[in-house]
Amino acid sequence: MTHEPNREFKLAGMKDVADRAGVAMSSVSRVLSDHPDVSDRMREKVLAAVEELGYEPDVLAQSLRTGATRTIGVLVADISNQLFAEISHGAETVLRAEGYSTFVANSLNDPEIAVKQLRMLIKRRVDGLLVSVGEEDGGPIVDAIANSGLPTVLIDRHLGTAGASRVLSDHRAGMSEVIHKLIGLGHKRIALINGIPNVLPAMERAAAARAAAEAHPGVTIDVISGTFSAEHGEEATRAVVSSAQRPTAIVAGSNQILVGVFTALRDLGLRAPADVSLVTCDPVPLAEFMTPALDTIWRDRQELGAVAAGLMLEGLRGAAPREVVLSTEYRVGGCVAAPPV
Questions:
Q1: At what angle do helices 25-32 and 14-21 cross, to 10 degrees?
Q2: Hey, is 205 helix, strand or coil?
Q3: Of the four, 127, 261, 275, 326, which is 20 to 30 A from 103 by CA?
């Protein structure tokens, strides 16, 4: 069955607005473009006609005239991850208030798909790019961003891209606070089940953990790198808790990894904090209803997106690229305690 468009439905056009207001089309154009040479009476008549007819400007026609689509491309690693959903929401809220729409593309944590999606956004003539991909090997995606000539904001990524603004989270501060808390409680062996080692958050978290271990002789912190996935979290947790040098505390390097950590601990009959202390980087949905409450290295994901959108608006206005670093903090729950005797 083929879809036939509704021939009877017709959107109001500028001529309809002019006829309803009883003015020339040029007057409608001046009012809608906020031209200063318009009387208050004229503006009232035109805007009243716009309201009555439900007139919406023809975005395609405007883009042909101005070369701008009022659309921002958002490329994320995995939109099914609540982290990226909240970042995208924060960005979209700010951009919509300024008259921009967002076009979200998902790279599925695949570098080749990321490049294809980025090129697709560029072909659709977006006015700018917000980018947070799954890996930071550079290469084709860096070239694609550089060759696009578009204002670009990297979200919690470096990518080695010159000329792009960045909004980052201070992952080292949050991780350092957690590790020192665990050490202060007497933990001598800690496992950080981390994500992809060349991605900025995982890189910074691992660096903070290793620095803390170096500052405390006798403390061992094992960093187990892998994908940001439940599968990695489960496999790594099973391995470390079954080892001869079993850790007394585990830090999950992402909310996705945490799901796998939970699965393994449940299957092995281990509880936090009675058997092992547990901390996560970024919360999971409904975590506030857990008993005991989950200890979390927290950051405002909506703010991350909102700040990225603000940097994008600056870039669209011709401002020089700049970097903003947002804070992280350790939010105490009930899953951390002194190691079991």
A1: 110
A2: helix
A3: 326
Rounded distance between C-alpha atoms, residue 261 and residue 252, angstroms: 7
**pTM for this structure?**
0.81
Instruction: Say what angle helices 40-53 and 25-32 make with each other, to 10 degrees.
Output: 90
For 34-88, write each residue's pLDDT tens digit: 778 888 888 888 888 888 887 766 555 555 455 567 899 999 999 888 999 999 9
Structure tokens at 234: 């489960």
Structure tokens at 224: 């187990």
Q: Is 71 helix (H, G, I), strand (E, B) or coil?
A: strand
- CA–CA dist 145, 140 (Å, integer): 9
Inter-residue contact 169 to 301 (CB < 8 Å): no
Q: What is the largest CA-CA distance in the chain?
A: 86
Pairwise CA distance, residues 72 & 57, whole Å:
18
Cis bond leading into 273, ω under 30°? yes
Specify whether the CB–CB gap between 311 and 322 falls below 8 A. yes
For residue 241, report the phi and psi dihedrals to the nearest 5 degrees: -80, -15
- Angstrom distances, CA of residue 333 to CA of 143, 178, 292: 44, 12, 7
DSSP 244-278: TT--SEEEESSHHHHHHHHHHHHHTT--TTTT-EE
| Strand duo 101-106 + 128-132: pairing | unpaired
